[in-house]
Amino acid sequence: MSSGNDGSEKKKNKKKETKLGMTYKKDASFGDWYSEAVVHGEMIEYYGVSGCYILMPSAMRVWNVLKDFFDSDMKKLKVNPYYFPLFVTESALQKEKDHIEGFAPEVAWVTKSGQSDLESPIAIRPTSETIMYPYFSKWIRSYRDLPFRCYQWCNVVRWEFSDPTPFIRSREFLWQEGHSAFATKEEADEEVLQVLELYRRIYEEFLAVPVIKGRKSEMEKFAGGLYTTSVEAFIPNTGRGIQAATSHCLGQKFADMFGIKFEDDKGSRSNVWQNSWGYSTRSIGVMVMTHGDDKGLVLPPRVAPLQVIVIPVSYSKDADMASIKGACESTVCTLSQSGIRAELDDRANHSPGWKYSHWEMKGVPLRIEIGPKDVANKQVRIVRRDNGAKVDVPLTNLVDEVTVLLDGIQENLFRTATERRDACIQVIHTWDEFIAALNNKRLILAPWCDEEKVEKDVKVRTRGEGELGAAKTLCTPFDQPELPQGTMCFASGKPAKTWSFWGRSY
């Protein structure tokens, strides 16, 4: 994948150009296509620090739609918003060694203030457990303080050195992270799935991206946690899975390390049960990869910053541009008053054709064209971004027709993405079938003995298979097919205990 990481100045500058039209084809050169799509679509701008990106208004508006939905549900669930500092001391970070060991290679450290060395280095948060939990132990004393549920919107830094990619793998990113404490494991278990369902809704109902809900293997779970659940997406063009969001049950280990105890109604003191959960701006990249085409971005209407662009069209110098522009302005006003996000592009220095390409690259779901005949017939021509279909709509039915079309685009994007994903799922039973499916860029569903040693062995054995990297478990889906008695693990030949999804991943 083309990544925007440290490379030749010529290559770097090439990515920063914003010419009209896409140069790369999605199927032929996916990495270059993706880099071009997010720049030409004005989602990001490359920045002077490798692996860091400027998020442009289009990206931030998509993020804010997801944020508004999530904030609303957090309020319903009585989860309180907080903000915790960016920095964490070395002593706090090292307090939970198993946890930080998983992040150690990615932690960025502040070691100087001006020209002076700090007495002790300060870390920039890769995640916030070690920042928050000392205060949980202060705030939680009694069963009356439980459940304690909080979340924050913030940035984190993970100093990724392997192929930074906008949204997907960057050194700084935005995310939502939630943390909670309960008196019982049953309450914690319930919340894990409750939040995971919200993440499914974000991807499927807003971003129109199909995901699989499941449980991570012991090898892939959150460092220091009891178990991890996730929603997993899949990119057919690359044959790679992508962890879209996670919801972890941390058990009582962190509570024991940080002294987060409560006194029950009988006077006994116990460790709390804890969860953590989060999703990030990676979601925007998954959306782009899933729906984008050779013309650029394709944005689902529910998250599109602009749902309708209105463009005046004149076919001759004699056209009454005043009446055409008036009809365009009236159309934008009518749609806007109905809550539809619409704008007029009346720039005189660009042709209608140039504008069509420009707004297609930005992924606007609907384009409305208004010319002399449309004015005379009191209608507009509407063009869909997802499939290019055109329809003439009377002004009297404008709002209803646009609403139906936007809903149809949302549904079509999800349906099409689901069909593409499902066409890549391959059920296998043997090692030879596994290797063939892996090299065919498939999302592999395989019977597995659920042993960590076997998973490690699969990683080692597939590392040399082609140039795309090793395979691993993506998740064990909650929706389990029947596992007939006597089914053997594809990798070890031992009795299989579960069906799991395997593949390469981002």
From TrEMBL:
GO molecular function: ATP binding; proline-tRNA ligase activity
Annotated source species: Urochloa decumbens
Enzyme class: ligase
Record NCBIfam families: proS_fam_I
SMART domains per record: ProRS-C_1
Domain Aminoacyl-transfer RNA synthetases class-II family profile: 51-300
Reactions that this protein is recorded to catalyse: tRNA(Pro) + L-proline + ATP = L-prolyl-tRNA(Pro) + AMP + diphosphate
UniProt keywords, alphabetically: Aminoacyl-tRNA synthetase, ATP-binding, Ligase, Nucleotide-binding, Protein biosynthesis
Claim: Nucleotide-binding is one of the keywords in the record: yes
Short name of any one Pfam family annotated for the protein: tRNA-synt_2b
InterPro entries for the chain: aa-tRNA-synt_IIb, aa-tRNA-synth_II, aa-tRNA-synth_II/BPL/LPL, Anticodon-bd, Anticodon-bd_dom_sf, Pro-tRNA-ligase_IIa, Pro-tRNA-ligase_IIa_arc-type, Pro-tRNA_ligase_II_C
GO biological process terms, semicolon-separated: translation
Name of the molecule in the record: proline--tRNA ligase
Enzyme Commission designation: 6.1.1.15
